[in-house]
Amino acid sequence: MAKHFASRFIDPEVLAKTANLQVIAKTVVEGFISGLHRSPYHGFSLEFAEYREYTPGDDIRRVDWKVFGRSDRFYVKKFEGDTNTQVYLLLDSSRSMSFASHKVSKLDYARYLAASLAFFAVRQHDAVGLLNFDSEIRRVTPPKAQRGHLMTILHHLEDVEVTGSTRIAAALEELSKLIRKRSLVVLISDLYEAADDLARALRFFHHRGNDVVLFHVLDPHEIELPLDGVLTLEDMETGEQIPFAFDKSRRAYLDELKEHIRMLKKECSSVRIDYELLRTDRPLDEALLSYLSTRSRRI
Amino acid sequence: MQFLAPLIWMASIAVAIPIILHLTRKASKKPLLFSSLMFLRRIPVVEVRRRKLKHPLLLLLRCLGILLLVAAFARPVLEGLWNPALVAGENKSVVVLLDSSQSMAVPSVWEKALEAASERVSALQIGDEVMVVEFGSKGRPITPWERNPARILQVLSSDLVPTFESTDYSEALKKAAEVLDSASNESREIFLITDLQRVGLPGRGFSDLELDDDIAIELKNVGVPSNNIFIEEVRIQREAYEERYPFSTVVRIASSIDVDGPSTSRGDGEVRLYLDDQLIDRKPFRIAEGGTGTVTFDTFDLPSNRVRGRIVLEPADAFAADDLYYFVVEQRKPTEILLVSGGDDIYFKKALSAGTNLPFALREAASLSATGLSDYPLLVLSDLNSFPAATLRGYVEEGGGLVITLGNRVDQSAFDRFLEGWLPVRIGEKRFARGSGSSFYSVTEVDRLHPVFEPFLHSRTNALAEVQFYGYWQLEASPGSLVLARFTNGDPALVEVSAGKGRVLVFASSMDRIWSDFPLRPNFLPFWQSLIRYASQTTTRPASMNVSEILAFDEWAKSEQVETERRWDILDPKGRRLLGLGDVAPDFLTVTEPGFYELRKDRTTDWIAVNMDRAESDLGQISEAEFQSVLSRIGHETTEVSGSEERGVQDTGNEVWWLLLILAGIVLLAEAVMANVISSGAVARHA
After folding, report:
1. Which of A140, B89, B571, B686 has the fewest Cβ atoms nearer than 10 Å?
2. CATH fold group of domain B90-223+621-641
3. What CATH number belongs to B228-332?
4. How confident is the model over B629-655, as a mean pLDDT?
5. Which of chain A's residues have a Cβ under 8 Å away from the Cβ of B28?
């Protein structure tokens, strides 16, 4: 019941009615967390753990002034899960991400997810950065842990426009030059790329000590292909057109897609990359759970 | 069930449109954007060979809607209700009198006429009966009395075309009155559809037309004011007795104008003469509106013994049929005539050799011999005193012509012996004017209509009236002989007797100047040429005939010197066989189309040129008021249906078109709803 209540606030179509990404992220995350408090995932919440004596370099805003008043010593609050993790949110902004069979496109969904994750990360004092890419990296917002940085991330997300075609492997290769510290890399994409190429790039990331979470965002129509008749389909990225008999060829398409997902899962599993398939008509909690699961491994 | 407008059913072919659309609807031309075709590229293309119907219920509704609409417009009528007994009120018998003369071929006129006929027929009520009679120079029913308008409309929509006949309203109304005598209903009507061509009015009015007072005449004028330039007349002879056609050919061109017609822009052009499709000569012409002009072609060589000629006006105007004139010219050998004379025949011989293109050539013999006599179609015996009876009888019985003139040397007994028991003519005694108290005898009575006197038909006096006869032999013409001319005292001057296939003409006087002053008279030459032509049975044929004239085969056979019993092959101008070789030729043939009729026998071919009656070329119209005025003289009034007035189609009460329209509306409404539902679903899925 509680989860259902929470899901109500993170239904993508409900979120789509809200223009402000900050509100969306806050709604999602707080709704999700309130659900977690009543859920078996208790340990994932951000709880006060202990005090630690201040050492130079600590954020002065985290000094507990009440304790200082009583003891005249500087102590900083230490929260459970506070790991100073650096999180990179990688958002696929290729043209295929604008596909939508209902009110929420894949890019919208990816935005909500990225905003929520950023919000989540900032709440946990993680340094979060964002970059969007298609065949190359389009824009980078470097990771920072300040609360004010969230607005920078959210502005970046709002400014994202679809361009170009998907070349994740190339983008990741370029990204690898930017990341100098072990990070949690969250890739949000529709993953229209050959599974082995993708796996090769991800494996490279993983071997450099990064944790990778792969969010595979697909529209329900891409997953079910519920159309009928014969239609000409145009590739949103290349403009290529193919006449397609849905009745006759739906099964073959679904088999191809299934095989693609199976290969992705297999490749990810082999290098301990978390893979999560997300439908744009489903709530974001699955994605957040997956993220927390991965992050918890770093603590 | 019958349909008042069955042709509308042709529109039911529209049913194919939704079927084809449902079968062939392919991918929307506007492509559907899809994230990536990465997986689709790997899928082999599935070619859909067998078309599958999409949305069959929707298709069914669409087809049904179309069929119901078509059926409604075809105006179905429940057949059981086409029973006059069920209908109260007065019913009509209507004759649709459709002008199909040549002038109706003016562009758009014939179409308007058929449309008017269809409208009138469609407006019939239950119990009415109708018959369509087309007319030109004669009226011809083209349908029987019919109570079902659909059958009449079917005839009207068939391949009816104007004929080549001229217009005769008197004949048309006579035929209409005749068929109305057999009508079932008491109320009778003639619906006259015509272009109101002035030349169609009989010169004597409708004085000989007997039309019952109760017959209403309704007039529909479909004519359009038109001007016309046409070949009015061509003066040309068929027979040429020389190698070169010896006369000038005179073409008379006329321009008829209609006071309401457009001012013709063409007053000049070119006249072309063709022989056997070869252009022989061309002459320019210029003609004033409403005026006439002539163009003369010089003599021309004949490329063969018998040639087909055309005279063509260029450029042709809208009414092109009269811009063309057909003719036939043939080269013939002159008929050889044998003259056996016992007296002075210098004037006679001069008369038969004077002029050009003479159809006969005179040969002379000192005495009569049986040998070679049959080579001559005519024998002239002048002032002889002996006759080889057996030879001459056989010659004449076989078709030879015999002309006998009686002069001073004639032996009465020999002559009577010659004719005794053979011909009903005798000679009596010689009569001389000197002894009678008068200085000469005159011929005061002639059979003016006889072919011998045809050249003088329009003369004020008879051909022999001015001749002074000083002497003649008194002829006794018994029954069986024909007296063609008589002297003042009643004695025969010229007697004709038929014998077998031949003709014998006996002239009571001589051809010299001794017994008369005839050789000095101007009528001497045409009289003897005409008589010789007649006696030798030399026929001349016109270079062309007019449509509706009759070609008499026996005359043709004579002119062609063929046996009438022979079987001929006859083809009309379009090459259609009218009479096959196995058929016996009829006595006559009415020519109905302009062009060349072809008559074949054995190895020879003859052509008869036929032209449209030039009376039809005058497209001038009379007003409806004038037509009514002419009719009113016999006590009849007409009602005019003007071009803009439409006779409303009357609902008979038995038609179910409205029911079908309602059904069609319901079906199409259901179709719209279903299509909307399907379309919404499709849009939602494709969005």
Report:
1. B89
2. Rossmann fold (3.40.50)
3. 2.60.40.10
4. 57
5. 231-232
